[in-house]
Structure formats: structure tokens, C-alpha cells
Q: What sequence folds into this?
């Protein structure tokens, strides 16, 4: 499984960004996909997770009501629409994937992308 993120950048507080993660490789090994974020010197934080069918979505408390996770292209693309951005949303954002039925931000993810930087000022 390969994951490639895009869409990061710099934005003013209150603005929006849309992240994308292009996935390839064995489909059943990426049934569950998620976004995580991490700032230098801080622990990684779960942002949003979604199962391949799209019916079950999970969000971290700090982004609920502002971020929306979705999948497209037959499950090959993971998106994160980020609205009402705050300076504290400044992190490196990572796309992650795992197989199996379990899908939450507490799951163990096997595959990770290289990350895309989001900076909010």
C-alpha cells in the first residue's frame, strides 16, 4: 500500500484547506483510512477516520464540526476538508491506512504517507 498526501499549505485563521491522499495497492489492506497530525515535539493526534463504505466516520474532539473526512474514487482517495482553521491546527498531517473491520482513531494503522504541512497564521 502506498499513500501520497497533497493539498497542504499556508492559510489565514478562519480559512479553509482541502487535503487529499492518493492510495494504491491492495484494496482490502486499506479498508480503513485516517488522518493524523503531529507538531514537532508533540504526540501524534488522531484527526479523522473513515471506513471504505463511508458510513462510519470518526473525528478527534478538537476538529469536530470543522473538519469533514470523505473517500472518493472507489475508495482510492481520502480527503479532508478543513474549515474554520485555527492557528492550533498547524501540524504535519499524515494519511494512514489499515485492513480489517476495526476502524477508529484508536486502531493500529500499518501504512503511512510522508505527510503534508498545514500552517495557519
A:
Amino acid at each position: 500500500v502506498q499513500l501520497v498526501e497533497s493539498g497542504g499549505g499556508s492559510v489565514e485563521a478562519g480559512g479553509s484547506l482541502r487535503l487529499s491522499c492518493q492510495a494504491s495497492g491492495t484494496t482490502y489492506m486499506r479498508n480503513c483510512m485516517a488522518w493524523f497530525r503531529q507538531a514537532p515535539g508533540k504526540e501524534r493526534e488522531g484527526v479523522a477516520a473513515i471506513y471504505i463504505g463511508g458510513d462510519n466516520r470518526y473525528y478527534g474532539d478538537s476538529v469536530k464540526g470543522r473538519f469533514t473526512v470523505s473517500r472518493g474514487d472507489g475508495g482510492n482517495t481520502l480527503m479532508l476538508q478543513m474549515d474554520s482553521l485555527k492557528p492550533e491546527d498547524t501540524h504535519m498531517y499524515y494519511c494512514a491506512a489499515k485492513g480489517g473491520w476495526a476502524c477508529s482513531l484508536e486502531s493500529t494503522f500499518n501504512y503511512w504517507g510522508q505527510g503534508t504541512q498545514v500552517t495557519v497564521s
